[in-house]
Amino acid sequence: MGDNYHTLDQYSSEKNAARQRRSKWIVIGSILVLVVLIGAGVAAGIIISNRNKSNGGSSSSSKGNNKDPSVFTKDPRLHKSFYGLAYTPEGSLVPECGNSLENVIKDIQLMSQLTTRVRLYGADCNQTALVLEAIKQTKVDIQVFLGNYVVPTDHAAYERQRDILKDAIQTYGTDHIAGVTVGNEFMLNYLTEHEATDPDGEIGKQGAAILLADIQDTRDMLASLALPKDIPVGNSDAGSFFSTDVLSAVDYGLSNVHAWFANTTAEGAAEWVTTFFEETNVQPAALLPNKPKMYIAETGWPTKSSDAGNANNGGSDASVAGLQAFMDNFVCQANDNGIPYFFFEFFDEEWKDIQFGGVEGWWGLFNADRTLKDITIPNCTAP
Questions:
Q1: Can you tell me the distance from the alpha carbon of 177 to that of 157, in angstroms, rounded to the nearest whole number?
Q2: Does the record carry Cell wall biogenesis/degradation as a key word (predicted)?
Q3: Which 8-state DSSP code applies to residue 123?
């Protein structure tokens, strides 16, 4: 561990570069998505049509072909060993919004064989309702941490997603909702854009004020629904970029902790992640009056790079063997130690590779076509 643990500048600078690029599509797409949503009745249409009638475009696993999505073949290679999985339905990028209930049902069928928890990042393109409808149709045991991807320069994006979340909660209830996460790497992006590094400094407090207002607004929205149970409200950020002000106002924090960006070896990655999370996130959170529960929001290992320059992080290659080593050393041990985590990620996301290159598109347990990579899933019981 030693030096690897204290390479926060390396971790944040490399992570900043990748994550700042990733957020650009949000800013552009949030403007264009209004055209897609106006008059379309997207949320209501998908919910109603898929709840009350068959879908002519459905696959053999959906009701459109008179098949019950709750009856599907289990893959003996899969084990319910993961505490949780990070997931964004394919086609959930604004303004295209090319996702579908058919594909989300297939994903939920697979993920239900690996975990009982899934975290989402945002609510655009009706992904909240799609996931909850897929859980309803497949009748699987999955709890979902919903998400609202907050953009510093576009408050309308927050409000749009808040209203989508509200509609989905009113339609599906709270049985499969574990929390609502407001913001993902907001402070990391805000500080980077303002050439600052301290989430508790003057610039950091300016960014935190935006998040705090949205967090309170989300709490007010949930309170207005008079729900049968309280839904926790949290925040997600890069591991070393949490604002103390924000953590003091939430029920939970989701921390992105990637050993790859700290130049560790694949064999040493599990120890690095565990130590970083405990010392940087869990211990400081325990000192706050509200004692927010801390989760690892993202952790994993890339299996390839689209260019030679990013094929090695300085410690190990991006490789299937590296992913296997990290899983073997992390998953069951984290389960035994009661560390809540969301493995990053369910499948390779091709749009990330197209837009960002490097290792960005290659973190999945599954390939983009949902075939399992040449890995052995650990066989242990997740809490």
A1: 22
A2: yes
A3: -
pLDDT digits (tens, 9 = 90+) for 10-56: 344 445 444 444 444 333 344 333 333 333 343 434 443 444 333 33
Please tell me the distance from the alpha carbon of residue 146 to that of residue 163, in angstroms, as a whole number.
13
Is 370 part of a structural domain of the chain? no
What is the span of the domain harbouring residue 311?
2-356
Render 226-237 in DSSP notation, one character per residue: T-SSPPPEEEEE
Pull the structure tokens for residue 231.
Answer: 């839904």
CATH number of the domain within which 38 lies: 3.20.20.80
Note whether residue 251 is domain-resident.
Answer: yes
Comparing 45-54, 81-90, 232-241, 278-287, the range with the smallest average pLDDT is 45-54
| Beta carbons within 10 angstroms of residue 192's beta carbon | 21
The share of the chain scoring above pLDDT 90, in percent, equals: 82
Q: For residue 58, what are its two tokens?
A: 């459905």
Total domains, the chain: 1
3-state secondary structure 14-74: HHHHHHHHHHHHHHHHHHHHHHHHCCCCHHHHHHHHHHHCCCCCCCCCCHHHCCCCCCCCC
* pLDDT per position as a tens digit, 169-211: 999 999 999 999 999 999 999 999 999 999 999 999 999 999 9
Residue type at 46? I
The DSSP 8-state label assigned to residue 9 in this structure reads H
Whats the size of the chain, residue-wise? 383
Q: 10 Å Cβ neighbour count for 74? A: 10
Q: What would the two tokens of residue 250 be?
A: 């939430």
What confidence tier does 66 reach under pLDDT thresholds 50, 70, 90?
low
SS3 86: strand
Say if pTM beats, i.e. exceeds, 0.70. yes
Q: What is the DSSP letter of 280?
A: I
- The three-state (H, E, C) secondary structure of 139-183, written as one string: CCCCEEEEEECCECCEHHHHHHHHHHHHHHHHHHCCCCEEEEEEE
Q: Contact 251/292 with Cβ under 8 angstroms?
A: yes
Tally Cβ neighbours within 10 Å of residue 197: 18
370 is written with which tokens?
């949902």
Q: Is residue 238 one of the residues assigned to a domain?
A: yes
CB proximity list for 248: less than 8 A, separation 6 or greater: 288, 289, 290, 292
Taking CA atoms, 26 is separated from 20, 69, 96, 313, in Å, by 11, 32, 12, 27
Residue 299 parent element (H or E): strand 293-299
